[in-house]
Design goal:
This protein is α/β, with parallel strands linked by helices. It is 28% helix and 25% strand. The chain is built from 12 helices and 23 strands. A hairpin with a 2-residue loop joins strand 21 and strand 22. The protein starts with a helix and ends in a 7-residue tail after the last helix.
């Protein structure tokens, strides 16, 4: 039995009821992985029946991804008489962080496929449909099939959607042709994750081309919020290292709409040094992909930059003038990260931010996750229009905050639990090393007394071997 199988089997037997794991099981878990044990320290689990609330009301959860399932599990175990309906079309559940490992050749598709039937069971009404209309004024949602569902309390966990079509000349069916790849490509309703498969083939194609030449490889990052903000760089470094391990090389360009490699200065500095060590990466900042000519293999970007203007006598400084130019980059291979947005149903509703940089995303308070205008509505996961949080790690931290605050509202109290903005980005800087960048609204927030800017093998082992079974048997059961 492999170490991975032992971990998977142990975790499968943890939390088979609504109580905390036993001390004996916890000790076994710690013996397998001190890192995982530390991750569990301070984690919250569903309430025991003695602690559960007697509050009543019909709760509707929209979405069957990580956020929706975790919210369902926690609310179910925290209410004595739960009345929960979940609206989600997908029986197949994908462990989406695993798509990066699929691209790297460490996972197969079978490694990331899970089943929502394992989590959505008795005591919950499951409507296998999708919400097309949110009517917050009347406390109803309307499904794709035309059913109108009433609620007393609503949890929005719809996730986000990809927009390959926002890039002129690119359509989703072009991914996997003419040197174009995108690890994000999947269909949660159908249960496919073609992006991971295609991107691994893309790795192999670059490798083959590097045997006889030095191909041009471009990796992009768009001008919208995205799921897992570090993913574009993970593909960049892993594909480069995939060559380097065999003594091969290519010319890599990282074209990002951002102005730096990472928001935290220490991590940004570390990534600059990593790129310098690779020696073949050219980062182009404030470059947003707007068009693709697949036949000619040319990518067109809008480059935004600033120049010095006239001297302002009153302010005693020069004005700053923002300018834009069109830049065309030739490539042999390109990895495209699509622009992303909230689903159309949220954008078209009164639930989304009506203006500002977060327009369209769910308008929730960044600390309580309660809707700012509709107090019986809460959000979890990628859909939330808050400064941070489009990661599975954030959704896990959203779970207990949402549960405590929603139940408080059900009990006629003010929500007091506070989400601190926690998010985590396991930046895979090479095969065998990861920078585990944990931070919140205030800055670095490491779970362990380690420098978060340093790549470490232990994080690679944790991410590759431990995180998926923890996700399946702890997080998705509301036990972590």
């Amino acid at each position: 039995m492999s170490k991975f199988t032992k971990i998977d089997t142990l975790l499968q037997n943890i939390g088979t009821n609504d109580s905390k794991m036993s001390r004996r099981d916890a000790m076994k878990f710690m013996a397998i992985s001190p890192v995982a044990a530390a991750a569990l320290a301070g984690s919250t689990v569903g309430a025991t029946s003695a602690q559960a609330s007697d509050a009543k009301g019909k709760i509707v959860i929209v979405g069957g991804g990580a956020g929706g399932i975790m919210a369902m599990q926690r609310l179910k175990s925290s209410l004595n008489n739960p009345d929960i309906t979940i609206i989600a079309p997908n029986e197949v559940h994908l462990y989406q962080p695993g798509q990066i490992f699929m691209a790297a050749g460490e996972y197969t598709f079978e490694d990331i496929v899970m089943d929502n039937n394992d989590w959505i069971g008795e005591g919950v009404t499951w409507i296998k449909d999708e919400v097309e209309v949110f009517d917050a004024d009347n406390n109803t949602v309307t499904t794709r099939e035309g059913d109108v569902i009433n609620y007393d309390y609503l949890v929005v966990a719809t996730g986000l959607q990809y927009h390959y079509d926002w890039i002129d000349g690119l359509t989703e069916d072009m991914i996997g042709t003419n040197g174009i790849s995108s690890v994000y490509l999947n269909d949660l309703e159908k249960g496919t994750a073609d992006g991971g498969i295609i991107t691994h083939e893309w790795f192999q194609a670059i490798h083959e081309a590097s045997k006889t030449g030095k191909p041009k490889v471009v990796c992009t990052q768009p001008n919208t919020p995205i799921k897992c903000g570090g993913a574009p760089q993970k593909i960049l470094y892993l594909s480069d290292d995939y060559l380097r391990r065999d003594g091969l090389t290519a010319d890599f360009t990282f074209a990002t709409n951002g102005g730096k490699l990472f928001s935290l200065p220490t991590v940004d500095a570390s990534l600059k040094e990593i790129q310098k060590d690779y020696g073949n990466i050219d980062s182009k900042f404030k470059h947003n992909l707007i068009a693709l000519d697949a036949e000619a293999k040319k990518a067109t970007f809008t480059h935004t930059y600033e120049v010095q203007g006239a001297w302002d006598k009153d302010l005693e400084e020069y004005d700053t003038i923002t300018k834009k130019e069109t830049v065309v980059l030739e490539y042999d291979f390109i990895h495209v990260v699509p622009p992303m947005s909230a689903p159309d149903a949220v954008v078209a509703s009164k639930l989304g931010w009506q203006k500002g940089t977060a327009k369209g995303w769910l308008e929730v308070d960044k600390h309580t996750l309660q809707h700012r205008r509709y107090k019986n509505v809460f959000g979890i996961g990628d859909i939330c229009g808050i400064p941070m949080g489009k990661t599975g790690g954030s959704a896990r931290h959203h779970g207990p905050i949402l549960t405590e605050n929603l139940i408080a509202v059900m009990e006629g109290k003010e929500p007091k639990a506070v989400f601190d903005g926690y998010t985590v980005c396991p930046l895979k800087t090479s095969y065998g090393e990861i920078i585990m960048a944990e931070f919140n609204y205030d800055g670095p927030a490491p779970s362990f007394p380690l420098d978060i800017s340093k790549p470490r093998w232990i994080w690679w082992a944790f991410d590759l071997y431990m995180l998926k079974p923890m996700y399946k048997y702890l997080m998705m059961k509301g036990l972590m």
